[in-house]
TrEMBL record:
GO molecular function terms noted in the UniProt entry: spheroidene monooxygenase activity
Organism the protein comes from: Salinivirga cyanobacteriivorans
Lineage: Bacteria, Pseudomonadati, Bacteroidota, Bacteroidia, Bacteroidales
Enzyme Commission no: 1.14.15.9
Alphabetized InterPro entries for the sequence: CrtA-like (IPR049574)
Broadest EC class assigned to this enzyme: oxidoreductase
Keywords: Monooxygenase, Oxidoreductase
Protein name: Spheroidene monooxygenase
The keyword Oxidoreductase is assigned to this record: yes
Top-level taxon of origin: Bacteria
């Protein structure tokens, strides 16, 4: 049995009309994602400004996360699906990474959508962390974020990181892409700013729902910032 295929697509837009269209598609794109063969889970998400994890919104960039039964279904949606054709027509740049889930714990919309397989060999690693922040903890949570986000920049093994989310401020996630698992683990378990947030999360029960997932990228299409982020 094949492991699930997870894709994350970033779309970039220029000009007010196209950015406003992309913003509206956070609501209207659902119609293009219903009853698609092999699609088991999806999320339409906005993004935070810059790289890393920031509270301010980036209205030029939007993300689509999808989970498929197999690679062929993901390919067909990316190349032939009406939604991606609209994204490419309106946007100026698109990047998609294909991944197999290798570890996942927690819940996203009351389910764990990734159904990870046994570890798949490889160096390149992607991580998605996602949480619904309890309303009473919003201010305190966001006071810790700038230090954690800035500390990401110190890691040579980091290829790219972006804050994404279904709703600003409250339902947030991060996507990060690493050259190797060693670099990712050094950030996760040795970075003091990150560890401080993890400790506070456990002490204060910040999250109403949370999920941490690790992936093995195996294919990519498109560029980001004019560059190909992965060699495959």
């Amino acid at each position: 049995m094949q492991p699930p295929v997870v894709t994350l697509t970033l779309n970039r837009y220029r000009g007010f009309r196209n950015k406003f269209w992309a913003f509206q598609m956070m609501q209207f794109a659902h119609r293009y994602l219903k009853n698609i063969n092999g699609l088991t889970f999806y999320k339409l998400m906005g993004t935070g400004s810059g790289n890393g994890f920031k509270i301010s919104a980036d209205f030029s960039t939007y993300a689509l996360l999808t989970v498929w039964e197999n690679e062929q279904q993901a390919d067909d949606f990316l190349h032939n699906g009406k939604l991606h054709k609209l994204y490419r027509k309106r946007g100026i740049e698109q990047f998609t990474v294909y991944m197999h889930p290798i570890k996942s714990h927690g819940m996203w919309s009351k389910q764990n959508p990734f159904k990870p397989e046994a570890d798949i060999p490889g160096d390149y690693t992607a991580v998605i962390t996602r949480a619904t922040i309890a309303t009473r903890h919003l201010i305190r949570f966001w006071s810790y974020v700038p230090g954690t986000s800035k500390s990401l920049e110190k890691y040579d093994g980091l290829i790219y990181a972006k804050g994404v989310g279904e709703w600003p401020v409250k339902q947030m996630a991060t996507f990060s892409l690493w050259k190797d698992e060693k670099s990712m683990l050094a950030y996760a378990y040795k970075n003091q700013d990150h560890m401080r947030v993890v400790k506070k999360t456990r002490e204060l029960n910040w999250y109403a729902e949370e999920l941490f997932a690790r992936f093995r990228p195996f294919k990519s299409e498109g560029t980001w910032g004019g560059e190909k982020l992965l060699p495959f």
